[in-house]
Design a protein that fits this description.
The chain is 44% helix and 28% strand. The chain has 205 residues and is α+β, with helices and mostly antiparallel strands.
Amino acid sequence: MMLLAAAILLSLLVSIQNMHISISSQKLERWVQMGYSKSWQSRVNNQVGKQLEEMILAGCEYYRIHEIAEINRVPEHFKVIATFRDGFFKGVFTGLAQQDFAGTLKGGRSIAFEVKATQSDQIKSNVISSEQKKKLNYHQLMGAMTGVCVRVKNTYAFIPWQVWCDMKTRYGRLYMTENEVKEFEVRTPGFVDFLNPVKSDQDGL
């Protein structure tokens, strides 16, 4: 990785010299490092997001076994447009993004929620797309339990959809800090127990 960054830096320096543009090598190096840092952070967040989904799927399996709920990952609309040898293929997404999970709680109420993760100490409202917002708004209107299951740094939480939508009014800005997310923290006994907030356990003490 560092060799690649150095190669990019050298290439840019040569290009700039050829164009007779005056710029310090230190400033250019900072630009390269910033791009490298953002790319690395994006990869970390993607990996954390995958781990969060796996823990949620484990929670769904626990709920299924104990007849608490039937909740599944919503598959994305996908179309194969070409096939190759050894099982490889080329495809495209054909539909607008929906919420990540949906299902039914024991008793008949439905549930729909999105999943987001970040290693930052805050999570922004705009990580939910406009189409996903429309879907969750409609599920909420129909009476479903809706929200966003998040991991913010080391805090796992299920934020009710109404709280998420009222972020600006509630916190005066369009993001929540890890400390604010802790109000909706859920237990993680080897999986994300998103139906059981920690706060309800504390209230019962």
